[in-house]
Amino acid sequence: QVLLAETRDAAFAGTGIEITSAGTGTAHSLSEAINRSAADAVSGSSGGNLGIAGSVAINVAETTALANLDGTSALTGDLTLTATSSSAANARAIASQEGSVARTAPAGGTGTGGTGGTGGTGTTANQNRTTGIGASLVLNITDHETSASILDGTGLTGQGTDLPGNVTLTATGSYDAWAEAKAGAGTNEGGTASSTAVSPVGAVSVIGNTTSADIGTGSGLTFEGNLSQTATHDAETVTIANAATTGTSAAIGIAVGLTLADESVSAVLAQDVTTGGDVTQVADGYAGTRTAVS
After folding, report:
1. Which of 42, 48, 153, 192 lies 20 to 30 A from 284 at CA?
2. Which residues of the chain have pLDDT under 70?
């Protein structure tokens, strides 16, 4: 049975909304809505002289939330354009290559002459691994756009002697990206490390996020009321590369983390505007990146 959940936490908890045909009105809405994409890759190996574990995870996500006005519109009331988007893109690759395993030899016995032998005691021995390789690569690519704009060349006129009233453009974008690559070559519980252990790890994030509440180019706009343009942008990108390596003869851990983030927030007025009220333009943006390599 498929249920509709009100929030992400409710979805994970298995709490659904009961939907009936008795509902009335137009004020029904979900309190949380997220565009979510994810890619996970996990691999592992153990035992034998040569152990190789490799994982590759690639996530490519593109989302758009547009409330744009294009062409020519004639109206005498207020114009309100609102675009809201919340996006999360996650990619994770984990590769684990374990070392030797502790093993107990079976009991044995010997005998001399005419006397019976006594059973030997078991001994513990490690099946040593010569080479262990654990490699992982993760690539997280996003292109997200949230726009509530009047596009270039768009005409906005009144009817007769009545002009458009208030014009309000509001764009709100929230964007999260997480890329994690982890690989380990070496020791497992109860055993010894591989003689040679190699762990190459790469984590790359290529991020593009745009939030805009713009008025493009044109021959000029005339309103009777207020003009408000508000763009709010909140973005965070995390890239993690972790190479944990243990070897008795040689241990090589190589970790590379790279973050390329292009963030844009704008409330541009690119043509002449005549209004009977106030003009307010706000572009409020936060963008944070963190790249951790170990």
Report:
1. 153
2. 1-3, 6-9, 11-12, 19-33, 45-48, 97-129, 184-194, 247
d(CA 10, CA 287): 28
Q: Which two tokens stand for residue 234?
A: 């909140």
Residue 139 and residue 258: Cα distance in Å, rounded? 10
Helix ranges (H only) for the chain are 8-13
Distance CA 29, CA 194 (A): 57
Q: Which of 183, 6, 154 is nearest to 68 (CA)?
A: 154
Classify burial at 281, counting beta carbons within 10 Å of its beta carbon; exposed 0-12, middle 13-18, buried 19 or more.
middle
Tens-digit pLDDT profile for residues 222-272: 989 999 999 999 999 999 999 877 767 777 888 999 999 999 999 999 999
Residue among 92, 138, 87, 136 at smallest CA distance from 259:
138
Report pTM. 0.75
In the chain, DSSP assigns E strands to 35-45, 50-66, 72-74, 79-97, 101-104, 124-127, 131-147, 155-157, 167-185, 194-212, 221-222, 227-245, 247-266, 273-274, 279-293
Q: What is the DSSP letter of 123?
A: -
